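Figure 6 in text form: structure in, sequence out.
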């Protein structure tokens, strides 16, 4: 078998990434032209370029990465579908089309994908890099200005995904920074090692950083120990939004975490309580978050918990779906997650994120 050329080998290595670098994904044919574009970026000090010649692989990379810009030649199979998917699921990501096709039919298709910019091939590598950096920098700056910092708190692995998984997916789609704090490893519900692995898988799917505590399952208190752990997370993460258990719940740990969160997050401007399968009929939501576009991600996240889905009816996809459908009717949405507002100081919830500038195109250029 032939060894890859040193150039390609170097370009394909995934290096640890400093947080402040722009991130760009190029999806194009693996030919000399795209290699020259990649080579142009190899010495770039402000951005890192990943590459894929396959749209299925690229879709996974977009889901798992945190790209500022995705540049696509839609001549690749699935290219247009991927562009549409990016704009519906990852609205903060800018999309740039690279094409040799100047036909009106192509233009109509590209516009339907709500692309941010277009460059006609053959563009010079320098021109591509200039436009790509311009766009990536614009979305990165805009995202930082608008970004919310979201902390979702649960007593056990899977609580957060069940209670607010759709809302978290919606935050993720608008480019917000997500953190999950799970206070126990859920020993009462199964093998802790398996549940920990499942929790990490679900958090990765939602693009969230996860911290798991070691409080004793079923014996949590609402006192200093629990408050201290949550306070520490609040101090470190400085969240703008906190989601936690509601008090109307038959599970003692859920009630303890609710009470501890209210103390620990007393300085957080927006605090909401979510519903659990063990919530009582006393739970009375006064905010409904439209998760119609995010139910698939929520069900996928819950499905990460195989040790629980096998034994709990409440985690079956049709129960999750019909619960969201039930709550959706209260707000005129197809599917919703219900929340009880503890505090909503800035009035800036993820519920209105569709109207933010994050979803609006930046510019359309033609080279
Ligand atoms: Zn729980």
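Output sequence:
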């Amino acid at each position: 078998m032939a060894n890859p050329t040193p150039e390609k080998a170097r370009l394909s290595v995934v290096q640890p990434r400093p947080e402040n670098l722009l991130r760009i994904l190029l999806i194009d044919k693996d030919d000399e032209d795209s290699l020259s574009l990649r080579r142009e970026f190899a010495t770039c000090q402000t951005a890192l370029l990943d590459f894929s010649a396959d749209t299925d692989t690229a879709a996974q990379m977009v889901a798992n990465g945190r790209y500022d810009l995705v540049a696509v030649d839609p001549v690749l199979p699935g290219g247009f579908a991927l562009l549409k998917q990016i704009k519906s699921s990852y609205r903060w990501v800018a999309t740039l089309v690279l094409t040799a096709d100047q036909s009106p039919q192509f233009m109509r298709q590209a516009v339907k994908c709500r692309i941010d910019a277009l460059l006609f091939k053959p563009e010079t590598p320098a021109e591509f890099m200039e436009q790509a950096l311009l766009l990536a920098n614009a979305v990165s700056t805009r995202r930082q200005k608008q970004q919310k910092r979201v902390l979702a708190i649960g007593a056990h692995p899977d609580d957060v995904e069940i209670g607010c998984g759709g809302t978290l997916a919606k935050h993720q789609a608008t480019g917000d920074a997500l953190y999950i704090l799970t206070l126990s490893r859920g020993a009462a519900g199964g093998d802790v090692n398996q549940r920990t692995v499942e929790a990490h898988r679900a958090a990765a799917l939602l693009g969230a950083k996860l911290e798991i505590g070691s409080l004793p399952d079923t014996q949590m208190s609402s006192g200093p120990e629990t408050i201290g752990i949550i306070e520490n997370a609040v101090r470190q993460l400085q969240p703008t939004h906190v989601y936690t258990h509601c008090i109307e719940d038959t599970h003692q740990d859920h009630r303890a975490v609710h009470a501890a969160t209210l103390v620990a997050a007393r300085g957080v401007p927006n605090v909401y309580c979510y519903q659990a399968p063990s919530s009582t009929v006393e739970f009375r939501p006064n905010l409904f978050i439209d998760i119609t576009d995010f139910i698939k991600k929520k069900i996928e996240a819950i499905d990460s918990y195989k040790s629980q889905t096998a034994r709990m009816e409440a985690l079956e996809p049709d129960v999750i779906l019909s619960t969201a459908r039930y709550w959706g009717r209260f707000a005129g949405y197809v599917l919703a997650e219900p929340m009880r507002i503890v505090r909503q100081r800035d009035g800036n919830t993820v519920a209105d994120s569709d109207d933010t500038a994050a979803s609006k195109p930046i510019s359309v250029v033609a080279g």
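Caption detail: Confidence is low (pLDDT under 50) at residues 1-14, 353-367.
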